[in-house]
Amino acid sequence: MFDVKQAEVAPGYWELTFLNVQMKGKALFFKTIGAQQKFSKSDFKLMPDDLTIAQTAEILRKQASAHPRF
Q1: What are the residues whose beta carbons fall under 8 Å from the beta carbon of 29, sequence distance 6 or more?
Q2: How far apart are CA 66 and CA 13, in angstroms?
Q3: Which of 19, 31, 47, 67 is the most buried (most CB within 10 A)?
Q4: φ, ψ dihedrals at 17, nearest 5°
Q5: Which of 58, 41, 48, 52 is nearest to 7 (CA)?
């Protein structure tokens, strides 16, 4: 199975928003192989053109602390 979706996240700017890959099979008739990957992005926000690297880093730090992974 291979499922890919794109969305226009800003006028004229398209981004991959969803990817789902599930593969099963045999390699060289002996070894069974399998791969699964799922990827999803959402909540895109348009940022100012004059944003500095330091400002970007601060936004990302705040975002990471508000939504910890573990």
Answers
A1: none
A2: 27
A3: 19
A4: -115, -15
A5: 41
- Look at the pTM and tell me if it is higher than 0.70: no
Q: Whole-angstrom Cα distance, residue 1 to residue 25? A: 12
C-alpha separations of 6 from 10, 48, 52, 54 in Å: 12, 23, 28, 29
Q: What confidence score (pLDDT) does residue 5 get?
A: 93
Q: 3-class SS at 21?
A: strand
Distance in angstroms (rounded) separating the CA atoms of residues 34 and 23: 5
Across the beta sheet with 2-10, the strand order is: 2-10, 13-27, 31-40
pLDDT digits (tens, 9 = 90+) for 10-57: 889 899 999 998 888 877 767 787 888 888 888 888 888 899 999 999
